[in-house]
Amino acid sequence: MWMLTKFAMIFFILALSVILVAYSANEKAALCSHRAAYTAIGIQNAFVNVLNSPVEDERKIIPLERMLSAGGDEFASYEIKLTKKTIGNGGEASHRILVQVLPTRRANCNGFANLEYARGDNPSDLKKLQDNDISFIAGSSASPDTLTVTPSETGVKQSTYLILIKCSGKKWPSRKYLFVQDCKQQQPNECYNFETVKKQCGWEETGGSGT
Predict the structure, then answer these.
(1) Cis peptide before 151 (omega within 30 of 0)
(2) What's the whole-number mean pLDDT along residues 163-170?
(3) Number of neighbours of residue 66 by Cβ within 10 angstroms
(4) Contact in structure between 210 and 203 (CB atoms under 8 Å)
(5) How is the chain classified by DSSP, letter by letter?
(6) Is the N or the C terminus of the chain less surrounded, counting Cβ atoms within 10 Å?
(7) Position 197 confidence tier, pLDDT thresholds 50, 70, 90
(8) What is the value of pTM for the model shown?
């Protein structure tokens, strides 16, 4: 009887340990998803504020956290994916930027947000942007549809800031632009700025000596 009781106690302790470990893992995943969603919505709000701002030319600096969650576990390292996507066709088309925040070592944690910058065949009256007016910048080159930002990397691969620059041409009919840069510099003044985009945004005449 004593041996049976002992085995029962051991079995109970082992079962309880498994339950606690599973609960701890689920709790970590839930907290990670919450943090990822919070980060994605923060980036979404930055885009919305810039696009809806009445200011014609605007530069927004978004500092990036090195880790998604505290500690050095599998939920800490993450990346951000920005994707231009069109849902639907013709006059019903919705032109969006999708924001995904994903840990690089786990699959059961993610954050998602999206924003609409144009609807139908033509840009909306409010934002006046089309697909070819939005440039994703990785290093010195532009990626047409997707930008992957890596805040958890080290050295030259680490993304430190997400830079948003909205500007308009200075001649009628003016054209609006949105530049989104994955900046890996330590100081934000070394990232994309109005000087970088002066040809597109009208401060310098194309083929001229500048204004």
Answers:
(1) no
(2) 86
(3) 14
(4) yes
(5) -HHHHHHHHHHHHHHHHHHHHHHHHHHHHHHHHHHHHHHHHHHHHHHHHHHH-S-SSEEEEEE--S-SSSSSSTTT-EEEEEEEEEES-GGG-EEEEEEEEEESS-SS--EEEEEEEEESSS--TTT---GGGEEEEETTEEESSEEEE-TT--GGG---EEEEEEEE-SSSSP-EEEEEEEE--SSGGGS--TTTTTTTTTSS-TTS---
(6) N
(7) confident
(8) 0.76
